[in-house]
Specification:
This protein has 129 residues and is of the alpha+beta class. The protein has helices at 49-52, 57-63, 118-128; strands at residues 7-10, 16-24, 36-44, 71-78, 83-84, 90-91, 97-101. A hairpin with a 5-residue loop joins strand 5 (83-84) and strand 6. The protein is globular and about 45 Å long.
C-alpha cells in the first residue's frame, strides 16, 4: 500500500533511482499495484565518466531524462504489502517500486528492470513495444 511520502525504487531506465509519492490519482488513501501516482524524483543515477565520455559529469546529466526535483506521473509495479488475487494466490514483493510514465500513459524509459506483477506484464509490454 503506497501512500503520501512513501519512498519507492524506480525500476526503469529514465534516470531516476528513488522517488517519493506526493499524490494518489485513485483518490483513495492507499495505492495498489497498477495505480497511477504522482511522484517527486529524490535521487538520480549517475552514469560515470567512462560511459559519459570526455564530457565528464555534464555528459552523464544529459543522458538522464529526469533530474532531481522533477514532478512526474508513475505506475506502481511492486508493493511489500501482500496482495491476494482472485484465484487465491498471495503475492508479496521485497520492495516498493514504480515506473515513470508521461501524462498520456507512455513510459519515459525504454526498459524495465526487475520483476513485474503478472497483471501488469501484458500492459507494460504492449506499451513499450
Amino acid at each position: 500500500m503506497i501512500q503520501l511520502k512513501t519512498i519507492l525504487n524506480c525500476i526503469d531506465n529514465s534516470g531516476a533511482t528513488l522517488v517519493e509519492c506526493v499524490a494518489n490519482l485513485r483518490m483513495k488513501r492507499h495505492g495498489r499495484i497498477g495505480d497511477r501516482i504522482i511522484v517527486v524524483v529524490q535521487k538520480t543515477r549517475s552514469l560515470g565518466e567512462s560511459l559519459a565520455g570526455t564530457g565528464g559529469a555534464g555528459g552523464a546529466a544529459a543522458a538522464n531524462k529526469v533530474k532531481r526535483g522533477d514532478i512526474r506521473h508513475a505506475i506502481i509495479v511492486r508493493t511489500k504489502k501482500k496482495v491476494q488475487r482472485k484465484d487465491g494466490m498471495v503475492v508479496r514483493f521485497d520492495d516498493n517500486a514504480c515506473a515513470l510514465i508521461g501524462k498520456n500513459g507512455e513510459p519515459l524509459g525504454t526498459r524495465i528492470n526487475g520483476e513485474l506483477d503478472e497483471l501488469l506484464h501484458v500492459q507494460v509490454y504492449e506499451a513499450l513495444h
